[in-house]
Specification:
disordered C terminus; two-stranded antiparallel sheet; 9-stranded mixed β-sheet; disordered N terminus; binds zinc ion
Length: about 425
């Protein structure tokens, strides 16, 4: 034993370090050259509903052909495949997948924020709120639809829209933006307590349902429910044709508003869902789906801009499952692929035209439902490299909870030069090198 107790302690700490700290996956260059890794102050989780590899690479190829560039979400330095099956089905629905991504546990199809026995699960958004961060939920569909609901609601039925709306108000989250609240005044609901918008106002929310209202919301302490439509936001393929002044509010607008409402010194957690993409894929409408991905990618662009100015930002992008059984080739076209032909379709409306065009473009659809194809998870920014371990959708919540929960705020992870940077070893267990069960 060394005679110098301090030296001994330091040596022991160095020897113990590999067990105390997470094993390091090889870092992509962009991450490896960064300064000491700390837990992120600002966290974005982007979920493309129905977005798996074919959807992402259909859009990638389209952009390459038409704009000589690729998708932002596909260029992120950390990438991995993530499995999506639910507790009771190889093919998941959005409720079970949303719950897995939000809470880190498998549940049955149709269940929101509860396990297969109906036991309440805690979401990463709830953990973030408890740890003092501001929380925002943004979606292009209705605010009480399955994916956003998984972050604040607890119900064994995704169809219980009114009850899920009550949970939305009870969550106390700081910002909700996107579509409206479904069944907001369902007086036949068992737990009917009144119009949800009125109840939200009583709970201290500013409720805006118009463009005018959207514009006058200013950053402050008030909680906000900001909507661009009674139902889902309109498809981007239809809005794109209109002059800018006549367009409805978009996913991009709500992402921007969420940031301006939530930026504060304790940091934030923002979940942004591209929800209509799933509907376009259910309808096997390739051009509509493509435009939803482009819009979703632009919303990620807003977060990337924010990250440029705030390097302590983590951006994670995933899908909840694949929809439509999309393939990037078909029997008739064999080796010929012309995805740029999707440019010819100017509206979401004509199903027959959409089908014919997808066929000519060299695309194929195998189902009107979801499939069990794994999704692609990509990440960029502070602590992004941990998401190389997101092999299953439950891993995303498990990782996020540790990075943004109370322990995450104290943790300092893996300095670039161990000898020169002080290490704070967390009192709770460190992030495991793999969280796959
Ligand atoms: Zn779906």
């Amino acid at each position: 034993m060394s005679k110098n107790p301090l030296r001994f302690a330091l040596l022991s700490l160095l020897l113990l370090m590999p067990t105390l700290l997470p094993a390091q996956p090889p870092l992509p260059t962009a991450v490896a050259t960064a300064a000491p890794v700390v837990c992120p102050k600002y966290v974005f989780l982007f979920i493309g509903d129905g977005m798996s590899i074919p959807q992402r690479y259909m859009a990638e190829e389209y952009l390459k052909k038409t704009e000589q560039r690729g998708l932002r979400i596909n260029a992120m330095p950390v990438q991995t495949l993530t499995t999506t099956s639910s507790a009771n089905s190889f093919i998941t629905d959005s409720a079970a997948a949303g719950t897995a991504i939000a809470c880190g546990e498998k549940t049955n199809n149709g269940f929101i924020g509860v396990d297969p026995d109906g036991k309440r699960l805690e979401s990463v958004a709830e953990v973030a709120k408890k740890s003092g961060r501001k929380v925002g939920i943004v979606t292009s569909v209705t605010l009480n639809h399955a994916t956003p609901a998984a972050f604040y609601a607890h119900n064994a039925s995704r169809g219980a829209a009114y009850d899920i709306g009550l949970d939305l108000i009870e969550s106390g989250f700081d910002y909700f933006g996107g579509g409206g609240i479904e069944e907001a005044n369902d007086d036949k609901a068992e737990n009917y307590k009144g119009n949800l918008y009125e109840l939200a106002k009583e709970k201290g929310y500013i409720v805006s349902q118009t463009q005018e209202g959207f514009r006058i919301i200013s950053p402050g302490n008030k909680k906000v429910i900001s909507m661009g439509s009674e139902g889902a936001l309109p498809y981007w393929i239809d809005e794109k044709q209109k002059p800018e002044a006549e367009r409805a509010l978009r996913l991009v607008d709500f992402t921007r508003q969420a940031i301006s409402q939530l930026d504060n010194e304790n940091g934030f957690f923002i979940m942004v869902e591209g929800g209509s993409l799933d509907w376009a894929c259910h309808a096997n409408n390739a051009a509509s789906a493509l435009h939803e991905i482009l819009e979703f990618d632009e919303a990620v662009g807003v977060a990337l801009k924010f990250q440029e100015k705030n390097p302590d930002t983590l951006i994670v992008v995933t899908g909840d499952h694949e929809t439509g059984g999309l393939t990037l080739g078909n029997r008739e076209r064999a080796y010929s692929s012309n995805i740029e032909l999707l440019e010819q379709q100017k509206t979401s409306k004509d199903a027959k035209e959409a089908k014919e065009l997808a066929q000519k473009a060299g695309l194929g659809w195998t189902t009107g439902a979801h499939t069990a194809l794994p999704v692609l998870t990509t990440a960029q920014g502070t602590a992004a490299f941990y998401f190389a371990d997101a092999k299953d959708n439950t891993d995303i919540a498990k990782l996020l909870k540790q990075l943004i929960g109370p322990a995450g705020r104290l943790m300092r992870l893996v300095p670039a030069k161990p000898s020169s940077v002080p290490i704070t070893v967390p009192s709770t267990s460190p992030i495991p090198s793999s969280t796959t069960p």
